[in-house]
Amino acid sequence: MELAHNEGYVLASYAITLIAMIVIIGWVLIDSRGRQRELKRLEEAGIRRRSARNAASGGAATEKTIDA
């Protein structure tokens, strides 16, 4: 298969797409780690998620909660 005169455009498009995907995946991974650290910090402070509270205590409101 010969790309002829479109070769530069096609290769540039693939390169830009690959770079954009790498940046987005990296951004999501970094943000995910940040959210996990924040959740850990909140749980250590005694703040629990509503879903964890409902599963553990049958829905009794005994702890501080945060909507997540």
UniProtKB/TrEMBL annotation:
InterPro entries per UniProt: Haem_export_protD_CcmD (IPR007078)
Major place of residence: membrane
Pfam families (UniProt xref): CcmD (PF04995)
Cellular compartments annotated: Cell inner membrane
Transmembrane segments: 12-30
Membrane topology classification: Single-pass membrane protein
Residue ranges, annotated region (Disordered): 48-68
Family: Belongs to the CcmD/CycX/HelD family.
Function: Required for the export of heme to the periplasm for the biogenesis of c-type cytochromes.
Protein name: Heme exporter protein D
Organism encoding this protein: Rhizobium aquaticum
